[in-house]
Amino acid sequence: MTLTQLDYIVAIDTHRHFATAADHCHVTQPTLSMQIQKLEDELGVLLFDRSKQPVVPTETGQVIVAQAREVLQAARRIPELAKESRDEVGGELRVGIIPTLAPYLLPHFIGEFMDRYPGVTIQMQELLTDQIVERLRSGLLDVGIVVTPLREGNFTEIPLFSEPFMIYAADGHDLLKKATVSPADLTQTTDLWLLSEGHCFRDQVLNLCGGRFSGRSALRYETGSLETLVRLIERQDGFTLLPYLATLDFDPIRRARLRSFAGKQPKRDVSLVMHRSFLKRSLINALQREILAHLPKMA
């Protein structure tokens, strides 16, 4: 067997379609199919069930594909080691970042990172945490910028910073009558606006607020945008919680509707996350340094 054949079976497992896998590997579909058939003949097992759409690996195929991913990761680590020995930082870096961080963190460092490392091509994808985890597992991403801990045994987490939560409320709301707010105060009201399901920030807010959400019967609105929540609160009523970085560009009017927490600040921990056998360590280390160098001071 060859590394190329292993690359082909991993591509089919990832894309679950022979034509798409062939495009990804920059070969024709007949070439890819022939190499897969050749590998199956050599091993004496069927790797994929071609009768199903999308194509799925057989039970034996799942085990072999998992091993193939490890072999390919180890092989790709060799040129990375050579680059690191020459103190080179270059290549492609595929990064996933959650939506409640992307618009507020990226502008602080991405331009400086590209200027400092012109040999790097960086591909940013804004994805939910579960999507980032899945793409890290399948090798479609190199690193994720997410809220941790993930409690994923095969992942490595590199802590970046802890980000406080802020309260944002409509004019005249009871929460704005206080200089600071305690978590207990949040459980006394039910007019909380939330992000849609799937966002880890939604779960953190619900935990802090005792599981309560908007009591409106006429309006059930789901959004993945913190800015949309802010605008709804300004035009309607209620309150929400925002991560600190999302409030840095607020004008004086919006800032007057912000409150911090009394005592120990509720926070979320943000980390770089990668598979345990991750590659491109020099690139990821450079990314970590650049984020920390340009990170705004937390409240």
Radius of gyration: 23 Å
Q: What CATH architecture of the largest domain do you see?
A: 3-Layer(aba) Sandwich
The secondary-structure element order is HHHEEHEHEHEEEHHHEHEEH
Note the total helix count.
Answer: 11
End-to-end separation in angstroms reads 56 Å
As a percent range, the share of helical residues equals 40-55%
Task: Please identify the top-level CATH class of the largest domain.
Answer: Alpha Beta
Number of domains: 2
Number of strands: 10
What does this structure look like?
This is Transcriptional regulator, LysR family. InterPro entries: LysR_HTH_N (IPR000847), LysR_subst-bd (IPR005119), WH-like_DNA-bd_sf (IPR036388), WH_DNA-bd_sf (IPR036390). GO terms for molecular function: DNA binding; DNA-binding transcription factor activity. It comes from Fibrella aestuarina BUZ 2. The protein is an alpha/beta fold. The chain has 2 domains: 3-83, Winged helix-like DNA-binding domain superfamily/Winged helix DNA-binding domain (Arc Repressor Mutant, subunit A); 91-299, D-Maltodextrin-Binding Protein, domain 2. Helix content is 43%, strand content 20%. The chain contains 11 helices and 10 strands. The strands form 2 sheets. Strands 3, 4, 5, 6, 7, 8, 9 and 10 form an 8-stranded mixed β-sheet that branches. Helix 1 packs across helix 2 (18-25) and helix 5 (102-116) crosses helix 11. The chain is elongated and about 75 Å long. The termini are far apart. The model is unreliable at 214-220 (pLDDT under 50).
